[in-house]
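Study the following:
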Amino acid sequence: MLRRKIFHHSGKSTIRGTELYRVEALSDAVFAFSVSLLIMSLEVPKTFEELKVTILHFLPFLATVSLVFLFWYMQNEYFRNYGINDGWVIFLNLSLLVLILFYAFPLKFLFSVLLSWMTGINYFSEVIEQGKTVITQGEFPQLILFFSVGYVLIWLIFHLLYRHAYKKRASIELSPYENKILHSQKNDALVQVMIGLLSIVFALLKHPSWSGFSFLLIPVWLVTNRYLLNRALKKLKDH
C-alpha cells in the first residue's frame, strides 16, 4: 500500500521488469522445489497418533516456508521494480538459490528447536525415544553460528543487489521517490548483515543467549528504518 502510494506521486510506472527472465523462471522452480522438499518431509500419517505428531510439526513448517517465501517475494520485487538482468545480478541470484536450497532443511530443524524451547512442545519425541540427544548445550552455539552465517550471506546478497541497482539508478530512470526507497532497502539489508555479524561474534565467544538476543534488534531496526524512510519521503514531497 505504501509503495503504491509513493509511486503514484512519481508519475512513472514502477514496473520495469515486464518480461520473465530465465533466471527468474529458474528461481521460481528452485523456491517451489525447496517448499516441496519440506512438504515431502512430512510423512502421511498412518495412525491418529502420527496425525497428531504431523499437526505439531505445522508451526516449524510454517515458519520455514514463510521465510523462504519472504526471500522469494523480495527477489521478485527486485526484478519487477528495477528490471536488471546483467551478469552480476544473475550470479548473485544463483548464489541466493544455492543458499536457499542448502538451508531449507536445517532451517526447519532450527525452528523446531526454538519452538520446543519457547512452547514446551516436544518436536523430537522419536529421537528421544531412541535414546539420542537432539542437541547438547555445547553444540547450541555452533547451531546459532551456522545459521547466523547463512543469515549474513543472504542479506549480503540482497545488499549487493540493491547497491547494484542504486549504481544504475540513472540508467533505469528511477524517480526521486524510488531513489529514496531503494536507498532505504540498501541500508536495511546492510544493517541486517551487521545484526547477523553481531550474532556470529557472540556465538564464537560461546554466548548463545546473547547471540540469539542480537536478532531482537531486527524489529527495532525495522521500525526505525520505516520512520527514516517516511521522514525522507515527507521532506521530498514538501519540496
